[in-house]
Specification:
Elements (H helix, E strand, L loop, with lengths): L4 E5 L19 E8 H5 L5 H20 L3 E7 L2 H12 L3 E5 L4 H9 L3 E3 L8 H8 L7 H12 L3 E2 L2 E2 L32 H8 L18 H15 L23 H6 L4 H13 L5 H25 L28 H13 L4 H15 L3 H11 L5 H12 L16 H7 L20 H12 L1 H4 L6 H8 L4 H17 L3
Parallel strand pairs: 1-2, 1-4, 2-3, 4-5
Antiparallel strand pairs: 6-7
Helix pairs in contact: 2-7, 5-11, 6-11, 8-10, 10-11, 11-15, 12-13, 13-17, 14-15, 17-19, 17-20
C-alpha cells in the first residue's frame, strides 16, 4: 500500500478540481480541514459571512466523505495547532495543499513544511501576471483584459473580438429604470439544513449583521443552481443598469456569484464557459456576455495579479495620509440621515453584500473624501462582505477606492459628489440633504466633502490630467472658505454619528 498522504484544504479552496486533488486516492489520502478559533474570534465578522464560510467547509467535508475520503475536520485554536494535532493522530508521510490564496497562508504552509502545488483556482497565475506586468510601462486593466480574451479564447472570432469591439462598457452605464417595475428575477434561496443550523447556533458573540436566511448557497450543488439561474434568466438583461443603485432592489441584474468563485464552490473557467455557451446559442446579446466575462477574466484576475505583484506591504500604503476612524454610519446606518448610506450600509447589514458601485461610489467614496484610514476601511469591508478575501479587498480598497497607493492602480481617485449618486440611483429623492448644495445645513455631505477633498489635495491632483479640470474648478469657487467650514462641520457630525 502506498504511503498515507494528507491533503490540507483551506476554507477558500472547496473544490476537488484544484491542484492538490489531481492524483487524490480516497483509499490512501486523508483530507484535513481546520476551523481556526483564533480566526473566527479575531474580528467582528458579519454573521452571514461566518456562516457561509463555515457551513460551506462542513458541507464540503460531508461531500468528500460521501466520495469515500477519510476527512479529518478539526476545530482547533489555530491552523498550525490543527495540523499538529492531525499529524500526531494520522502520521501522514506527506502533507500537500493547493497553493493558498493569501500571503499569510503561504507563509504558514512554508513554515509548517507543507508541500504546495499550483491550485488552478484562477485563470492566471501570479507568475504569468508578473511576467506580463514586466513588459508594461503601465498596468492598465483594459490591456490585460484584451490579452486575456486572446489567450483564453472567450468571445473571439479568430484573432478579433466578436461584435467588432473589445469593450461594450459604454452600453452598461444606464441610470435606474423609472416607475419601480423592475424586470430582474429574484435570486434563488436555499433551505437551511442541519449543518447550517449547527453553524448558526454556534456563531460567535462578536458577530454582527442579520442572521443567515438561505440567501447564500453553501454547497456546490446549490452554487450550480445559482449559476444556471444567472445564465438562463438574468444574463440576457445583464449590463445596461450595471452601475445603477436602487433602494428597493438590491440585486438588479448582477450575477451574485462572487462568493462561490472566491471560496471555490464555482471556478471562473466553468462560469465563463457557461456564459460563452449561452452566447453561442444566441440567447445572450454580446454586450451582456462581454460585460460579464470582462468582470471575471479581466477585473477579477487583474486584482488577483496585483495583490501578488505588489506584495504584503501594499496593504499598509496611505499616500493621502488619511487617519480618520471609521464613522458610526458604517456600523449603524440608522445613525445617519444620508439616504444613500442608510440604504447601502443597510444592505450590507441585511445580506453581507452590495454590488460594486455602492462599494466604490457610496461607501468607498465617503471614506475617501472624509479621509478614513485605509487599513481601517479595508478591515471593515473584509469583515462585512460575504465574498471578501484579502486579495480582493486590499487592491480594491487601497488602490481603487481610497487611492492610498498614490495612483499605482487607478490613474485618478474615484471621488464624487451628490450629483453622481443622484444620477445613478433613487437615493436622493426624499433625502433631507440637497445634492446640489455644497454649503448650508442641508448641503449634501458628499457634495461638500467632494469639493473640500479637491481643495485639500489640490497640489497633488492639479498635476493629474484626469483631475486638473475639477481641481481648478474647485480653486475658483467663490465660497471656498464656506466650503471648508461646512466640511469641518460635516466631519464633526460624521464622527459623532449625527450626520
Amino acid at each position: 500500500m502506498s504511503t498515507p498522504r494528507t491533503i490540507w484544504v483551506f476554507g477558500d479552496q472547496l473544490n476537488t478540481a484544484l491542484g492538490a486533488f489531481a492524483d487524490a486516492d480516497p483509499g490512501r489520502d486523508v483530507v484535513l480541514i481546520v476551523e481556526s478559533r483564533r480566526k473566527i474570534d479575531s474580528r467582528p465578522w458579519h454573521r452571514q459571512r461566518v456562516h457561509f464560510l463555515l457551513s460551506s467547509m462542513r458541507h464540503f467535508a460531508r461531500d468528500l466523505q460521501e466520495r469515500g475520503f477519510t476527512v479529518d475536520y478539526r476545530v482547533a485554536p489555530t491552523m498550525a495547532a490543527g495540523l499538529e494535532a492531525h499529524r500526531g493522530e494520522f502520521s501522514p508521510g506527506e502533507v500537500t495543499a493547493s497553493e493558498p490564496n493569501s500571503h499569510a497562508a503561504r507563509a504558514l504552509v512554508e513554515r509548517l513544511g507543507v508541500r504546495t502545488v499550483p491550485s488552478g483556482q484562477f485563470l492566471t497565475t501570479s507568475g504569468d501576471f508578473a511576467a506580463w506586468a514586466g513588459t508594461r510601462k503601465s498596468l492598465k486593466m483594459e490591456d490585460f483584459y484584451r490579452r486575456q480574451r486572446v489567450r483564453l479564447g472567450y468571445l473571439m472570432d479568430g484573432g478579433e473580438p466578436v461584435g467588432g469591439q473589445w469593450n461594450f462598457d459604454h452600453d452598461n452605464r444606464e441610470a435606474p429604470p423609472k416607475g419601480g417595475q423592475y424586470p430582474w428575477p429574484t435570486p434563488p434561496m436555499s433551505v437551511l439544513d442541519d449543518i447550517d443550523e449547527t453553524v448558526i447556533g454556534a456563531l460567535p458573540d462578536s458577530a454582527v449583521g442579520a442572521m443567515p436566511t438561505g440567501q447564500w448557497a453553501t454547497t456546490r450543488a446549490d452554487a450550480l443552481v445559482r449559476l444556471r439561474h444567472f445564465v438562463d434568466k438574468v444574463l440576457p438583461m445583464f449590463g445596461p443598469h450595471e452601475d445603477a443603485m436602487l433602494s428597493d432592489n438590491w440585486h438588479l441584474a448582477h450575477s451574485i456569484l462572487s462568493p462561490y468563485m472566491n471560496n471555490g464552490l464555482l471556478l471562473p473557467g466553468e462560469v465563463c464557459d457557461a456564459v460563452q455557451r449561452a452566447f453561442d446559442a444566441g440567447s445572450v446579446p454580446v454586450a451582456s456576455a462581454e460585460g460579464f466575462i470582462r468582470q471575471v477574466i479581466g477585473w477579477r484576475e487583474y486584482v488577483w495579479g496585483l495583490y501578488w505583484l505588489w506584495g504584503p506591504d501594499y496593504a499598509s500604503m496611505n499616500e493621502l495620509s488619511a487617519v480618520r476612524a471609521l464613522p458610526p454610519v458604517f456600523t449603524d446606518p440608522s445613525s445617519s440621515a444620508m439616504a444613500c448610506m442608510r440604504s447601502c450600509v443597510g444592505d450590507v447589514h441585511d445580506r453581507a453584500w452590495t454590488h460594486h458601485i455602492p462599494r466604490l461610489m457610496v461607501m468607498g467614496n465617503l471614506a475617501l473624501i472624509a479621509g478614513v484610514d485605509p487599513r481601517t476601511m479595508t478591515n471593515w469591508m473584509w469583515e462585512m462582505f460575504v465574498d471578501a478575501a484579502e486579495w480582493v479587498m486590499v487592491p480594491n480598497v487601497v488602490g481603487m477606492s481610497l487611492h492610498a497607493d498614490g495612483g499605482m492602480m487607478a490613474t485618478k481617485p474615484y471621488a464624487g459628489g451628490g450629483a453622481y449618486i443622484d444620477r445613478m440611483s433613487n437615493h436622493c429623492k426624499g433625502c433631507r440633504y440637497d445634492r446640489k448644495k455644497r454649503t448650508g445645513d442641508d448641503a449634501c455631505p458628499f457634495t461638500t466633502l467632494y469639493w473640500d477633498f479637491l481643495l485639500r489635495h489640490d497640489e497633488r491632483f492639479v498635476r493629474n490630467p484626469r483631475m486638473s479640470t475639477q481641481v481648478r474648478a474647485a480653486q475658483k469657487l467663490p465660497d471656498t472658505g464656506a466650503v471648508r467650514d461646512r466640511a469641518a462641520e460635516v466631519l464633526r457630525l460624521l464622527d459623532s454619528g449625527r450626520l
